[in-house]
Description:
- The chain is an alpha/beta fold.
- It folds into 3 domains: 7-64, 434 Repressor (Amino-terminal Domain); 75-173 and 312-343, Rossmann fold; 180-309, Response regulator (Rossmann fold), CATH 3.40.50.2300.
- It contains 13 helices and 11 strands.
- Strands 2-1-3-4-5-10 form a 6-stranded parallel sheet, sandwiched between helices. The chain has a 5-stranded mixed sheet with strand order 6-7-8-9-11, with helices on both faces.
Amino acid sequence: MASKRDPSTANTRNSGAARPTLKTIASITELGTTTVSRALKDAPDIGKKTKQRVREVAQQIGYIPNRAGVGLRTGKTNVISLVLSLDEEIMGLTSHMVRGVSEALSSTPYHLTITPYTEDQSPLDAIRYIVEHRTADGIIMSRTEPHDERVGYLHSQRIPFATHGRTLMDIDHPFHDFDNKQFAADATRQLLERNRSRIALLAPPDSVTFYHHAFDGYKNELRAHSLEPWPSLPCTIDHKLDFIENQIKHVFQQKHRPDGIISMSGGSTIALTCGIEAAGLVVGRDVDIVSKQNMNILSRFRPEIVTIDEDIHQAGRELAKAVIGSIRQTPHSELQTIAYPSIGI
């Protein structure tokens, strides 16, 4: 039998060459076009080595699926849409999430698009646009709310999706979440061990679920030591950094002020620290901070800050796997993961 053709001799990347097709890959690999097509779609009945061989050849010859044709034939787009608030760009949250999702999709026929929305837009509008215009086969979304209308809408439309965060709804769906309750409890414990007793929480707004998880962990740990939560701060991690800095400066200019703060966002922690220092106080001496972070910046900014890591890159990978699993009708109970906090170095 003749040996398989060397894809390097196909010269399909030359500007004058015809566009590579499934038949091109089939000819090089000596497989049927149906097998090649199913391998590129990650069909479960095609062997791992066959899929790898087909993908390698497709990459080497520059094969690009005609997505318009695929959509007309199958009703599918081979697109996963990541719906993100533009506010999530602070401290590189978006880039870490995108990298994780992209890596997980690289071995599948799906590619990623990003659908952004701003704070003055309804998050549901972005979801409706995707569904009504059929621009994606699956959706990943963040900033999940306790009773999230997006979850209810997508469930009613039978659209595969995964959420970064959980709801309090009775709808079972794929998700990946960070254990913010455990984070807040661990952070509170860290401050108590430093003999801090007036501990405040710089949290997200109470419209998102992870506020409630974090507040429960913080409150429960304080009450276990016969302490009560500090009154709410006049800012949240959603506020602009200048606003956070100015509000924190005012808080720490008061005689009765916190001696420890838990921050739910690395970006907000920088503004928090600047506000404390603008009030004439020193982090690590007058007040201690424990902060969540998704990249190792805070320890370089102020080594006195205690950090607890949240891996947003891995979250992206988990969310991509969850939404692909949903498309393949994997039971939702198998597509629900939680990451646990670890103290930063």
